[in-house]
Design a protein that fits this description.
Radius of gyration: 27 Å
Strand order of the largest sheet: 1-2-3-4-6-9
Distance between the termini: 22 Å
Number of helices: 18
Structural class: alpha/beta
Helix content: 10-25%
Strand content: 25-35%
Shape: globular
């Protein structure tokens, strides 16, 4: 708990200093007050790793965690707490005081662009995991700011859309993950979202930030706006938004001080939000004397062996085995040749796009991992099978002979001596503000050069995207000039880049040429930079070559999926099937080789009508920097996939609950499905999904016994203890997740047929038994009613536990129940605390 020093400092501050404390000073920084020893703050995006002072994958290398949905698939709070501690260590190494994570918005629809960043469709699972992650982060003295508060589960018109939802829907589905992070995780921060909620922007929503967050949940931390999400001075301050980001401020700072001096904002309002950021500084130790946020040049890299091991374990724990016809783990004694097929086999697609992107310490591919382990034992043959690039990847390895040289110049025109020279792994350079330490952000230019060695002879095509002005040279000759008239129209980089600008170029295999890009930030707004890609002449029949390779080998592995441009912030997914003809690739390869293993390197639910074709299917998601090594571990039997699906996969795209209301129209979206999000919809209506919520196979086998209740009768509002016996009946060590669902048998109001109310993950040796104990507190039986117990008076609105019979079901998914027991709750309806 914070002490009293923040209060002493608050009393010593002037109005102008208080108003300055609640406003950003830079893109990632908020200033302090040096005369009083109040240090500056540095914030950083952090759902998949601590990026530090960079943007959209640029910046200091860092540990890249599995994405949120892959962590959701672990069903393992203890693991999440370990990963949170790692993120806290990375934050400290990069001078970051506030980590903008975790993301706990629900998977309301399979097309949500940031589903990869969020944990699950289920409020309980999301909240328990997120709370554990926050405890880990804050154990290192770094504040976590859970996001996006609230109902920000789609990219469609995300800055302005009005989410219309009744209070019961909000209280039972949208808000519980945030409540868990605040109450169970003890989060010091919350990030307000862009969207409106029932007509009011979330960053100026008094009911959301005041009544719910502070009054009902007892939150005493700070509320930071999403970047540029602040919409007002008076409304935001009075609602309790504590910090406007980024800086320089548009509504806080001087405008807020003037509003206080004019009497439009009361002194107590300013004191309240200034007190929030002072308490934050006391919690993180930023009241111990003058300090400044570390710049990019100061940020440190950890890259510890134990962290790599943890991330590898996390990638395994979040991989779901969807199908296995005995081919996994792969027995190498019968495999002399192995076809490794698919567009993601040799691409490191380890994270989604947008603010969750980082510059990872390393990015492993499955092809690389298998080559390193099987060299000299198994002949590997690789074929891509198809191309799924949404835009052209940046020119880099293996086309370049070494790294590119990037020379930065103050001023336009690439003239004079460089202000900085550095190496780049690819032809991609994007920045907001200072592009490199010591380079003038206001007006700069960049010349990037490298030697390109083509692998084939033919007509290639250069593809340039830019925010600024650039031209491309081959051996000193301009082949693409985009210095005039090429702006906007693109989708990449949250729509801030131009569309791809093409230029043909003839190249000869093995003949090296010098490629250069001359760029200047002239006319760039906010973001500046470029990306140059190179399309090689496409082989005549990618699919045919893949099928031929599969038929010629003893087994085949097909790595299909998406990448950070298909699943990204700023744009929802626009296809139900995997892109680029990948379903046909799976079917054709599986037909050619009965020992076909599919690795799904994608997150969002997609069509699985091909699921029965291959012998085995691993759903690996975006597994972070150790994805390739972890996938090889599972395929070769060194590790067992331990994941369970955190989201229902519908059999058809139209079968998700929000379908008729998604993504919204007329500037609004209605949560017409109400409490029936995810498995609650499928289970209540008896719709058979392609993959049920909570489902996952194992390399071993388990028996889960029926739930045993400590008592069959309890007063409404009392806890109910549940014991479940689990037995590993197979011949390998493995993990099982015992899931506890509650079904009200005589509901007084409409309720889902069953809801997840508890879970536990256990790791057992062959023949080992364990008893899992889960305590169902009163909230596990409660429903929210805005009309009160007698359905008559809003003055009695709240959470109620109704007397009656409740079935307690234990199982391994919402559809695979292993036994039930019934508890009778007696007495009158019991109102619970908020």
């Amino acid at each position: 708990m914070p002490g009293d020093r923040w209060q002493e400092l608050l009393a010593a501050l002037t109005v102008e200093e208080k108003a300055g404390l609640v406003a950003g000073t830079g893109f990632w920084t908020a200033g302090g007050v040096e005369r009083l020893g109040i240090g500056a703050l540095k914030l950083s995006d952090g759902p998949a790793g601590v990026r530090g002072d960079g943007l959209l994958g640029a910046g200091t290398p860092t540990a890249c965690l599995p994405c949120g949905a892959s962590l959701g698939a672990t069903w393992d709070p203890e693991l999440l707490e370990e990963l949170g501690a790692l993120a806290g260590d990375e934050a400290a190494a990069k001078g970051v005081h506030v980590l903008l994570a975790p993301t706990v918005n629900l998977h309301r629809a399979p097309f949500g662009g940031r589903n990869f960043e969020c944990y699950s469709e289920d409020p309980l699972l999301s909240g328990r995991l997120a709370a554990a992650f926050v405890r880990g982060v804050q154990s290192r003295g770094v504040a976590a700011a859970v996001k996006h508060f609230a109902a920000n589960d789609s990219e469609h018109e995300r800055h302005t859309i009005d989410v219309r939802a009744d209070e019961r829907t909000l209280r039972e589905t949208v808000l519980p993950p945030f409540k868990a992070v605040v109450v169970e995780g003890g989060a010091w921060g919350v990030m307000g979202s862009y969207n409106r909620l029932n007509g009011i922007h979330c960053c100026e929503h008094e009911w959301l930030l005041g009544t719910v967050l502070r009054d009902d949940w007892g939150f005493d931390g700070f509320v930071v706006s999403d970047w540029f999400a602040t919409r007002s001075t008076i409304g935001s301050a009075c609602a309790g938004m504590s910090l406007e980001m980024p800086g320089p401020p548009a509504f806080y700072g001087t405008p807020l001080a003037e509003a206080v001096e004019a009497g439009d904002v009361d002194d107590t309002v300013l004191d309240r939000i200034a007190g929030d950021v002072l308490r934050l500084r006391e919690r993180i130790g930023a009241l111990d004397g003058p300090s400044s946020a570390m710049s990019l040049a100061d940020e440190a890299e950890l890259d510890r062996p134990e962290d790599r091991a943890l991330l590898r374990r996390a990638a395994v724990a979040g991989t779901v085995l969807l199908r296995n016809d005995g081919v996994l783990p792969l027995e190498l004694s019968g495999v002399r040749s192995l076809a490794v097929i698919g567009p993601n086999a040799d691409r490191a697609c380890v994270m989604g796009g947008g603010s969750a992107q980082v510059n990872p310490y390393r990015s492993s591919t499955l092809l690389e991992a298998l080559r390193s382990r099987l060299e000299g034992r198994v002949a590997l043959r690789h074929e891509p099978g198809c191309d799924v690039s949404r835009t052209t990847p940046p020119l880099g390895w293996p086309d370049l002979a070494g790294k590119a040289t990037a020379a930065y110049f103050d001023g336009h025109g690439c003239r004079g001596e460089p202000a900085a020279v550095t190496a780049a792994g690819s032809f991609e350079a994007v920045a907001v503000g200072e592009p490199h330490p010591g380079v003038d952000a206001a007006e700069y230019s960049l010349k990037m050069t490298a030697m390109l060695v083509p692998s084939t002879t033919g007509r290639y095509e250069l593809r340039l995207m830019q925010a600024g002005r650039a031209r491309v040279l081959i051996d000193g000759e301009v082949v693409l000039d985009a210095t005039e008239g090429f702006f906007g129209g693109g989708e990449a980089y949250l729509g801030m880049m131009s569309a791809e600008i093409p230029a043909p170029v003839d190249l000869v295999a093995g003949e090296a040429v010098e490629v250069a890009v001359e760029f200047e930030n002239r006319d760039a707004m906010f973001l500046a930079g470029f990306r140059l890609g190179l399309l090689a002449p496409e082989p005549a029949d990618l699919l045919g070559a893949a099928v031929e390779a599969a038929s010629a080998c003893d087994a085949a592995i097909v790595v299909v999926g998406t990448d950070h441009e298909w699943e990204t912030e700023g744009r929802d997914r626009d296809a139900w099937e995997l892109p680029g003809g990948q379903p046909e690739l799976i079917r054709r390869v599986a037909e050619a080789n009965p020992r076909t293993i599919v690795v799904v390197n994608a997150v969002g639910p997609h069509a699985l009508d091909w699921l029965e074709a291959p012998a085995a299917v691993l759903h690996a998601g975006f597994g972070g920097q150790e994805f390739g090594e972890a996938a090889a571990d599972m395929i070769l039997g060194d590790a067992e996939p331990g994941g369970r699906m955190p989201t229902t996969v519908p059999a058809q795209a139209e079968q998700f609950a929000a379908h008729v209301n998604y993504p919204g129209d007329g500037g609004a979206v209605h949560y017409g499905e109400r409490m029936f999000v995810g498995h609650r919809w499928h289970d209540s209506l008896g719709i058979e999904p392609a993959v049920p919520f909570g489902f996952g196979l194992s390399y071993t086998t388990f028996e889960i016994g029926p739930p045993r209740l400590a008592r069959s009768t309890a007063a409404a509002g009392e806890d109910v203890s549940v014991d479940v016996e689990v037995n590993n009946t197979g011949d390998r060590r493995g993990a099982e997740v015992v899931q506890i669902y509650v079904e009200p048998l005589q509901p007084r109001v409409q309720r889902p047929i069953r809801e997840l109310k508890g879970f536990a993950k256990v790791h057992l040796d062959p023949g080992e038994k364990a008893t899992v104990s889960v305590v169902l507190n009163a909230g596990a039986f409660a429903r929210y009613d805005p009309r009160g117990a007698d359905f008559a008076s809003a003055d009695d609105a709240g959470w109620y536990v109704d007397p009656g019979d409740y079935r307690i079901a234990a199982g391994r998914s919402s559809r695979h129940l292993c036994g039930t027991a019934t508890v009778t709750l007696t007495g009158e309806p019991r109102r619970l605390a908020p």
